[in-house]
Amino acid sequence: MRSSSGRAQSGRDIGSTRGRYARGRAAAFRGSEAPRAMLRYMLPVTHRPDRDGVLSQHRHVPFFLALEIAAQAWARALATTCEGLLAPADLAVVDVASTYRRELFTGDVLFEVALSKFGSSSLTFALELTQHDHPAASLTATLVKVDADRLHSMPFTPEQRAALDRLLLV
Predict the structure, then answer these.
(1) Is residue 4 part of a domain?
(2) DSSP three-state, residue 58
(3) Looking at the DSSP assignment, which residues form a beta bridge with residue 153?
(4) Which residues fall within 8 angstroms of residue 116, CB to CB, at 6 or more apart?
(5) Domain containing 103 — which CATH number?
(6) Distance (Å, rounded) from C-alpha 54 to C-alpha 97?
(7) pLDDT tier at 25 (50, 70, 90 boundaries)?
(8) Is residue 97 part of a domain?
(9) Which domain covers residue 159, as residue numbers?
(10) Structure confidence by residue, pLDDT tens digits, 121-170
(11) What is the spatial distance between Cα 10 and Cα 13, in angstroms, rounded to a whole number?
């Protein structure tokens, strides 16, 4: 991904997407409706050392690594949108679904993040992954706000709901 100055953007918030491009990308999420805001992050995907300390030399990205980086993208979107009102530690993942259109490789991946829905205590992030200008995967992650003991769901506060609403696809 290149910025308007021609420099590559990596590991940075690329901002929200609006307009014709956003409407096209939102179609993958909810028909042909346009999102209010879809945050975009170009994140580096690299292998971690295996348990024995050896770093994989394969370029292929296993699904679990893609899911881990996707979690970083939705956590960043949450931090950007809620500005301290709601943190990943306040949430428990209850469902993750992914569809891969092509293989992912190590390197930069563009993550487009939005909320497809949220209720009184749960929310669902919708993510689109693109690598080298090719759609690579679609992901959804449903999370529930939990109490301090992480045993019971808790409703979002009005302030949290207002912040989350800015990221909701309309």
Answers:
(1) no
(2) coil
(3) 146
(4) 29, 30, 124, 125, 126, 140, 168, 169
(5) 3.10.129.10
(6) 30
(7) very low
(8) yes
(9) 12-165
(10) 999 999 999 999 999 999 999 999 999 999 999 999 999 999 999 888 86
(11) 9
Is the separation of the CB atoms in 144 and 89 below 8 Å?
A: no
Please state the domain count of the chain: 1
| Amino acid found at 169 | L
The mean per-residue pLDDT over the stretch 56-83 comes to 93
- Within-domain flag for 150: yes
The mean per-residue pLDDT over the stretch 55-63 comes to 87
Tell me, yes or no, whether 3 lies in a domain: no
Nearest residue to 90 (alpha-carbon basis) of 163, 161, 153, 140: 153
- The answer to whether residues 95 and 102 touch, using CB atoms and an 8 Å cutoff, is no
Q: How is residue 26 written in tokens?
A: 């939102």
* DSSP label of 12: E
Residue 135: CA atoms inside 13 Å, Cβ hemisphere, count? 13
Task: Evaluate if pTM is beyond 0.85.
Answer: no
Burial of 110 (0-12, 13-18, 19+ CB in 10 A): buried
User: Is pLDDT of 72 > 80?
Assistant: yes
